[in-house]
What does this fold into?
Amino acid sequence: MKLSTTTRTAAVSAALAGTLALAACGASNESASSAGSSSSAQQLSGSLSGAGSSAQQAAMSGWQAGFQALQPGVTVNYDPVGSGGGREQFLAGGVDFAGSDAALSADELIKAADRCGSTGVFELPNYISAIAVVYNLQGVKDLNLSPKTTAGIFSGTITTWNDPAIVADNPGATLPSTTITPVHRGDKSGTTKNFTDYLAKAAADTWKAGAVEEWPTSGGEAANGTSGVIQAVTAGAGTIGYADESQAGSLGVAKIGVGSAFVAPTAAGAAAVVANSDRVPGRAQYDFAVNVNRTTTSASEYPIVLVSYHIGCVSYQKKATADLVKAFEGYVISKDGQQAAAKAAGSAPISDDLRTQAQTAVDAITAAG
It folds into this structure.
C-alpha cells in the first residue's frame, strides 16, 4: 500500500520549509513515544552495541549524543563497517542491532528467524537520505545526467567526458575529452544496493547487473566506506562516484534526469519520493521496509535515495538488552531524535505515518519468556 497523499504533502512541505522537526503525532502516539525523549523517563544503565552503515554514522553521532543526555548511564557503541557487515554481525549475534541502508534480503530473513526466534525482527526506517552522483571535473560546475547516461558511465560503456551521450544531456556546455574514472564502493554497501537498484529500474536497457550490495562490474576504482569514495573522487581528475549527499562537500553534484527535467538531490525530493512509494509486500508485522519508486517522473521527487533502517529483534534473551533497545529506538524515531539526525547528517525525517508505524514495533520490544 502506498504511503498516503497526506503523508507525502507533510513530508515535502516540511523539507521545503527547511523545518527539520516533524509535526506532532496524535495523542496516543505522542504518549507512547514521549518516553524516548522525556527527562522523566526511567533511567537505565549498561551498553548497547550496533554496527553497520558508514553513511549512517553521522546520524548515529547525533543519536548517541542526544540519547546519552537523556540516559547518561547508557553507552551506545556503533561500528561503521558498512550495511552488509552490520547485518552479518547482527545475524550472527555479535551486536544488538544493525544500521543498514538496505533492508534484509529473503535469505537474511531466514537467518534472522534463527537469531530472533518466532517473534521475528523489526526493520525501522530511521531517516531518508539522497544519494548524490558526485564528480571532480575541472571547469564543469553544472552537470546533467540522464538515467541511461549514468548507467553507461558506471557500467564502463561511456568512457570520456565529451561522449555524445553526456553532450546531449548538457547542450551548450564545454566538456573536456578527459577520461572518466568511476569510483565505486569496494565493501558490501547499502548505498551501492540503492544506487544499483536505481540503475536497474530507471535504465534497465543499459544496466544489466541488477541491484546488488557488492559492486558487480570490473574497471573503475574501488574505495571503502562513504568517506573513502569522497576521498577518491576528490583526489582524482575526471572522477565520478556516488555517496550520501550530505558528504559531498566541495565536489560537483550532478542533476539527475527525472521525466523531462533534471533534478538535484535534496531532502525535500528524497522525502517526496519515499512518501509516494510502496512498502515491500509480504513482510512481518514490524518490518517496515520500503520499495522506493525509482521510476518517478515528478520533478518534485529525487529517485536515488536510501531509506536507512535499524534492524533488531522484537524479543531479546535479556531484559536489560530489551530495555536498552526499546529506549534507544524510541528516541531515534521520536521528534527529538529525528531533529538530531537531520542536524548531524542533513537527512530528511521519516514521515508521521512511518513514525506511527515504527512506534508499534518499539512498543512490542520485550524480553523472551
Observations:
- The mean pLDDT is 89.
- The chain is about 40% helix and 20% strand.
- Residues 124 and 358 are 6 Å apart (CA to CA).
